[in-house]
From TrEMBL:
Organism: Streptomyces spinosisporus
Superkingdom of origin organism: Bacteria
Membrane topology: Peripheral membrane protein
Taxonomic lineage: Bacteria, Bacillati, Actinomycetota, Actinomycetes, Kitasatosporales
Entry keywords, A to Z: Antibiotic resistance, ATP-binding, Nucleotide-binding, Transport
Classification via Pfam families: ABC_tran
Name the UniProt record assigns to this protein: ABC transporter ATP-binding protein
The UniProt record lists the keyword Nucleotide-binding: yes
Subcellular location: Cell membrane
Signal peptide residue numbers: none
A GO term for molecular function: ATP binding
Length: 305
């Protein structure tokens, strides 16, 4: 059952449609990702879900509630870590955690949460003295402290070092395992591919694609890339006849093909039939990066139009 429903959402600034008919639903218990280029409308969409912005048109529901009309009730079930946030500079980490915990009827025990996020030794530190990564971890803690059914994380690990980023990923997986639905806005493809059950790619204010990470990768123009240096010339007609071939490139005697697993199988069979050896053979699967670029690159769209 969906806990977030967005239908034909529209938001305009200065005559420009920043969000232009976005629709998707987030199922209870899943990690749902939103990807998109800068300025695509991701944060505006999320702020409408949080009730921080009023849509110009369309419908948004969080556990069946209107985030604007029922804002107080939505705030009890939805925690949010915003893309940009600030606290009073002299507030300590402990004071911030205690203050936010006091806002909720059934908050989490903030002490283990602070330890898990690497803030245990910073409880007496003032907010203004924290590093960018420490501030980010504090805001994640504040988003979770109300024991929400849904948590919205906008650019979750921006500013974190690789070790802290992976620790945070493990925390989010634990949060989901506890039954919390996660809406994740990110530009880290590795993060989205590891964490998300489904991803909506938003481009120019519209949903360009919605699928699982694996499903989006399969949509890539070349879901698999095979490259090799042949021991003898290969007829271009044979290469162009390969099944599900997306592209062929010749460079310095090396051949690079983009296609699918079926393309790989077919080219290996072709080479064996002609007794051609593939030197320095490399087979690389496409990534979410490749799929993202295919979905949002205007040049790719024009080439396939």
């Amino acid at each position: 059952m969906p806990v977030i429903e967005v239908t034909d959402l529209r938001k305009t600034y200065g005559g420009r449609a920043v969000v232009d008919g976005v629709s998707f639903a987030v199922e209870e218990g899943e990690i749902f990702g939103i990807l998109g280029p800068n300025g695509a409308g991701k944060t505006t969409t999320v702020e409408c879900i949080e009730g921080l912005r009023v849509p110009d048109a369309g419908r948004v529901r969080v556990t069946g509630l209107d985030p604007v009309a029922d804002h107080a009730r939505v705030a009890r079930v939805l925690g949010a870590q915003l893309q940009e946030s600030e606290l009073q500079a002299k507030l300590t980490v402990r004071e911030a955690l205690e203050l936010y915990a006091s806002f909720y009827p059934d908050p989490l025990d903030w002490a283990p949460l602070a330890e898990r996020l690497g803030l245990g030794e910073k409880l007496s530190a003032r907010f203004g003295k924290l590093s960018g990564g420490q501030k980010q971890r504090l805001f994640i803690a504040l988003a979770l402290i109300g024991n929400p059914r849904i948590v919205v994380l906008d650019e979750l690990t921006t500013g974190l070092d690789p070790r802290a980023r992976r620790d945070t990923w493990e925390l989010i997986e634990d949060v989901r395992a506890g039954g919390v639905t996660v809406l994740l806005v990110t530009h880290f493809m590795e993060e989205a591919q590891r964490l998300c059950d489904r991803i909506a790619v938003i481009d120019k204010g519209r949903v360009a694609a919605l699928d699982s990470p694996a499903g989006l990768i399969r949509r890539s123009a070349g879901a698999t890339v095979i490259s090799f240096t042949p021991s003898a010339p290969v007829d271009d007609r044979d290469l162009n006849a390969l099944p599900e071939l997306a592209s062929v490139e010749h460079r310095d005697g090396r051949i690079t093909l983009a296609g699918t697993d079926e393309t790989v199988n077919a080219v290996i069979t072709l080479l064996a039939r002609h007794r051609i050896t593939a030197h320095q053979l490399r087979v690389v699967d496409a990534t979410l990066d490749d799929a993202f670029l295919d979905l949002t690159d205007d040049r790719t769209k024009e080439a396939t139009a």
